[in-house]
Amino acid sequence: MLELITFSTLNGVLYGMLLFMMASGLTLIFSMMGVLNFAHASFYMIGAYFGFEISRHIGFWPGFFIAPILVGVIGAIVERYGLRQVHKYGHVPELLFTFGLAFVIEEVVQMFWGKLPVDYRVPPSLDFVAFRLFDTTYPAYRMFMLVTAIAMFVFLLAILTRTRVGLIIQASLTHPNMVAMLGHDVPKIFMLVFGVGAALAGLAGVIAGPALVTQPAMAGLLGPILFVVIVVGGLGSLTGAFVASILIGLVQTFAVAINASLTDLFGPTIGASLGDLGNVTVAQIAPVIPYVLLVLILIFRPTGLFGTRES
Predict the structure, then answer these.
(1) What is the CATH number of the domain that holds 44?
(2) In contact, 75 and 191? CB cutoff 8 Å
């Protein structure tokens, strides 16, 4: 039992931090522009493919630094020449634009890399056992993913709270007209934040690609859970995105590890009243649990855990 709790906690925090790497950028974009970017997970996918392609030619570590920058540049271009032009027509066209962009990106990825998963591997320098506990080994690459995600969170928090650039960005989130009157180029700040958000998603893709499956469907698999995170945490709240990411990561990881049925958990009386549903294990319903949490949050606290805007 202690082994299960220890490794489920490690994996849950790791998965949660991976979600936060993407949710943080999406949260900043929504806070500043009021746009829920449906193509955000696609930048995560592009980061994984760029990391794979660069690693084939010059190695994993150059790809680790170059790929997120390239994804950030693409994100900035999308905002400058696409989203900014649509913005004047309202939020619905913006949503439709990002929704269509997600499909375009997926098709382009399939054109270049095909529909099958690519062979994006863990670099040899990180392909070893980090530690052994309870006769179970834990890969060094997973620890690298966790350390990278935590370092990104600390760096992002420091930038937003300790630097002049961060103060300008935070002011632009709430008082864009006043920031513009002080002489700052608010549209350029919007483009910068959108690009940084895309770069963070790209970085998540670069480090998740070797550990998970790098395929054209990876954006569609992670995209829905990403929106669960920002709604549960509160639209526009970076703290909420962090807490919700860790919460959902832990809940889903522990649920997958529990093979007990509902009858085992609640007793034969309640299990019998549930019929066949009583024999369903918690692991089988694990993928549904975050969405149940989403529904409950929308019913009882529409603003989310830390948000101020209604979801």
Answers:
(1) 1.10.3470
(2) no
Q: What is the largest CA-CA distance in the chain?
A: 69
Q: Which residues of 200-221 are buried (b: 16+ CB within 10 A; e: fewer)?
A: bbbbbbbbbbbbbebbbebbee
Give residue-wise pLDDT tens across range 234-273.
877 778 888 899 999 898 888 887 777 767 666 666 656 6
The answer to the question of residue 83 being in a domain is yes
Q: What is the distance between the alpha carbons of residues 311 and 302, in angstroms, rounded to a whole number?
A: 5
- Domain contains 244: yes
Inside any domain, residue 308: no
Q: 71: Cβ–Cβ under 8 A, 6 or more apart, which residues?
A: 43, 46, 47, 50, 198, 199, 201, 202, 203, 205
What is the rounded distance in angstroms from the CA atom of residue 14 to the CA atom of residue 196? 22
281: left (phi over 0), alpha (psi -120 to 50) or beta: beta
Reference 169, options 31, 24, 17, 21; nearest CA is 31
Within 13 Å and on the Cβ side, how many CA atoms surround 157?
13
- Would residue 311 count as lying in a domain? no
Domain count, the chain: 1
40-98 pLDDT, tens digit each: 899 999 999 999 999 999 999 999 999 999 999 999 999 999 888 887 787 788 888 99
> Which residue range is the domain that position 146 belongs to?
2-300
- In terms of DSSP H, where are the helices of the chain? 2-33, 40-58, 60-78, 84-87, 91-113, 140-162, 164-174, 176-181, 186-208, 218-233, 238-257, 262-266, 268-274, 282-285, 289-300
pTM assigned to the model? 0.86
